[in-house]
UniProtKB/TrEMBL annotation:
<dbReference type="InterPro" id="IPR005069">
    <property type="entry name" value="Nucl-diP-sugar_transferase"/>
</dbReference>
<dbReference type="GO" id="GO:0000139">
    <property type="term" value="C:Golgi membrane"/>
</dbReference>
<keyword id="KW-0735">Signal-anchor</keyword>
<dbReference type="GO" id="GO:0016757">
    <property type="term" value="F:glycosyltransferase activity"/>
</dbReference>
<keyword id="KW-0961">Cell wall biogenesis/degradation</keyword>
<feature type="domain" description="Nucleotide-diphospho-sugar transferase">
    <location>
        <begin position="169"/>
        <end position="367"/>
    </location>
</feature>
<feature type="compositionally biased region" description="Polar residues">
    <location>
        <begin position="100"/>
        <end position="116"/>
    </location>
</feature>
<keyword id="KW-1133">Transmembrane helix</keyword>
<keyword id="KW-0808">Transferase</keyword>
<feature type="region of interest" description="Disordered">
    <location>
        <begin position="76"/>
        <end position="120"/>
    </location>
</feature>
<feature type="compositionally biased region" description="Polar residues">
    <location>
        <begin position="76"/>
        <end position="93"/>
    </location>
</feature>
<dbReference type="Pfam" id="PF03407">
    <property type="entry name" value="Nucleotid_trans"/>
</dbReference>
<dbReference type="InterPro" id="IPR044821">
    <property type="entry name" value="At1g28695/At4g15970-like"/>
</dbReference>
<keyword id="KW-0333">Golgi apparatus</keyword>
<keyword id="KW-0328">Glycosyltransferase</keyword>
<feature type="transmembrane region" description="Helical">
    <location>
        <begin position="43"/>
        <end position="65"/>
    </location>
</feature>
<keyword id="KW-0472">Membrane</keyword>
Amino acid sequence: MDSVDGGTNCKDDEIVLESSDHHNTSSNHHQQQKQHNRSSREIFQITLIFFIMLGLSGLVLYQYAYPSPFYQRSYSQSFSPRNPMKENQSSPSRGALQGNKISPSNDTTPGKQISPGNDDKTLEKVLDQAAMEDKTVIITTLNAAWTEPNSIFDFFLESFAIGNGTQNLLKHVIVIAFDAKAYFRCLAVLTNCYALKTEGVDFADEAIFMTEDYLKMMWTRIEFLISVLEIGYNFVFTDADVMWLRNPFHRFYSNVDFQIACDHYWFNSTDLNNSPNGGFNYVRSNNRTIQFYKFWYKSKDKFPGQHDQDVLNMIKFDPFINKIGLEIRFLDTAYFGGFCEPSKDLNLVCTMHANCCIGLDNKIHDLKMVIDDWKNYMSMPGHEKFTKTINWTVPRRCF
């Protein structure tokens, strides 16, 4: 059999050499074939390198446009090593945990800085779910330190359960959680929970009075409440260390823009010399209250190092309040008492606040006494409630 292009002839296992011309032709052909193969390999290598570089460039551009979860400073990612579902038997969506984020901004309109989460748990939906017929909600804030077993949050919930006409109000309560543990703790017992993350701040631990974290937490609260008013909802804001013992709506003033509890009350609801307490207030959503809350928030720069309550106590005399026509009323401590000035008559009291008290352990100790005092009062026969003088046994450690 003759070869097609090889220049050799194979027969009976013998090799017969062709002429030198044929040999030279074969050599030239092999040399050309080697050069062709080398050129093909070089072209392949160059092409391969080109596509690798193209792919890497595309990956870099994609990563820049859509950062991977590893590099994102997302709310849910920061808590991913834990398994809170085992602690609370609840499985919220990732978007719900992200909730709203407050990012640093030079904008003096803080409500604008808050943007909804990425799932069905938007702020608007939580508000709508919890709202009364007149679009009023009850809002409280929590961090992990206040959600420990037998701590502040447990007493808060128990007060609604044992209060006089307060059980039905619990469905209107929205818990604004400052950290993941507080959020999952809320989900374990309530429907209306909303996660609020402040970039660069961890609010999980106890915020000691007047520390930097404490001040940030208080002003974050004011900032958040602006967004609630802008969406169009009225609210009763209540600290979680306020015990709800009677329905307070019967004691609120009708059609008043802003009404607030007091540390000390001077027997006149319109007297600006009353000492307001930011831990309990009832606010109606309108242009006046939105302007007022923005003014309040912006005033923190005028009074650096002061918390929201002290700033309010200073700006309540400002001409801007009269200019916008805001109506302020102060709530009588006979109905809305606290450790600063306890209500005198348990037949009248609506709420009891663990104010004028520094230290979580002290609050817990005295709030437990408040719950016990109220249970003892409620267990008394009706006629004894009105014929006997019934006093609080608190404050004790908080005094």
